[in-house]
Amino acid sequence: MRRRPKVEKAKDPRKAVSLMWNNLKHYKFRIFLIFILVILTGSFSLVSPYLMSIIIDRYIAQADFSGLSIMSAVLLGIFIFRSLFSFFQQFEMIKVSQNTLKRIRVNLFSHIQNLAYSAIDKMKKGDLLSRISNDVENINNFLTSGFSELASNIIFIMGTVIAMLLLNWKLALVSLSVIPLITILTIFLTNWTRKVFRQHQKVVGELSNFLEENLVGIKTIKSFGYENNANAKFEILNNKARGIEFKAELASLILPPTLHALSGIGIGLIVLLGSLLVMNGHATIGALAGIIVYTRRFFHPFRALASLYNQLQSALAGSERVKEIHLNPGEKDHPQAEDIDRISGDIKLENINFSYDQDQLILKDVDITVQHGKTIALVGPTGAGKTTVVKLISRFYEPDSGEITVDHKNFRQIKKRSFREKLSVVLQEPFIFSRSIRDNLKYANASASDEEMIESCKIANVHHFIEQLPDKYDTVISEESSNISAGQKQLLSIARAILADRPITILDEATSNVDTLTEKKIQEALKHLSKNRTNIVIAHRLSTIKNADLIVVIDHGEIVESGNHQDLMAKHGYYYKMYLAGEDY
User: Fold this and answer.
1) Domains in the chain, ordered, with CATH?
2) What is d(CA 139, CA 298) in angstroms, rounded to the nearest whole number?
């Protein structure tokens, strides 16, 4: 048996519908055309049983072969036109759904790109991917077929009632007597499944998060022999999903057999009572045959609507989950913020206090001055606040209080994106895209020439390595950069920063996970990268920042010492103890 999808239900269907309509409204004419085609298709479907009852009573019973031939031709024409209208209805619906899907995806991706870093930082990546892929696909499934089918079935149900009453109102009432029971059972069952279906998509998001985390961290899992623990945790999540899916599957299985049973009861009553009416002269054989056909067709839309209910709720839930992303505010600048063409790189933090939440201050009264062309190193134990300082300088977060200036201009007066375009970043674990080396290098400077790119790679001591590759600069980096080493990846990121040629460089210790030979190459490349730039370094190996112009020692969010290497060593303070301990921080 084909499994039915279990889906989350929308908490607020009206808001979910609003998102769908905001994207559908751009195709009002096509939707109107689809509605007309739905009416025409449904009308032709309704006419054929009515005509068959007339054929039985007027032509077959009267042995009128000439009239029978004409009516048969009319029926054939009805079937042909119904098929044509149905085809064009689906064709137009596919065009509308695909255009709408494209619009939803583009708007969603664009909004995610423009989200504040603080909002993205709080999101679970697996759940976010589930919304972008699964939830958008649920919307697509409904728009492609469910939307027109829902309208078609509703029209068919109303039209069938009218047609049966026109044929014989007594027989129609017998057939329609089971409708209240169907309605009550349908409402009861759908309300019963509402909470169960809501939980399913949440579990899917949890599974996605777990799978993504474990696939990315598979080396760590294997290194620690943690496979059995990972399997056990996955088993717990999977069992949780199975329990919810079983309840939802049970709910999905109960409704169709119930409707089948009611359909059989209805037809049985019609055959029994209809035959008595025919025998007593209160109905014709043609009317009875027509009513039986309508009744058999009548219950199909109800069964379809039961299935479409889940599809609709899946689409509404998907729409709602997509809308939740849109409700996260995009990154905003101060109303008076302006773009900047050039900066020298003088940065000053004054009396900075910052917390990720209201309960705990991460930075307390931080004062740091970075002069143009100088190198400042941030050192301290893990969790001291070094990375948070860099996030504030990068404009990913705003301080709770205090002021940050660049070239004596308040940060809030500069547009965030404009400022970030003046930054080059080299992380401890740089991200290299699954694209060619050329594309990765030119990512931050698309207008750079090949000569400039090659020169940057020579400075970064990575050109020789690239030239040895089969496709050289057109070599595609595999997913997770598995076809290059950690050191080569780091050198590529440095070459990318050199090619970007920006006045401020942020460096997260780039030599912590490489061999001695590669470390020397990286250190040489970093010397070239640092020339005539303002450099902010998060230092883990204290031996790498002895030549920094200013070393700022941070502990528990506060600056405990600052000065150059010689001055700090002479103080015999916090830095002195760290350095003599010879540990990485």
Assistant:
1) 13-327 (1.20.1560.10), 333-421+542-585 (3.40.50.300)
2) 27
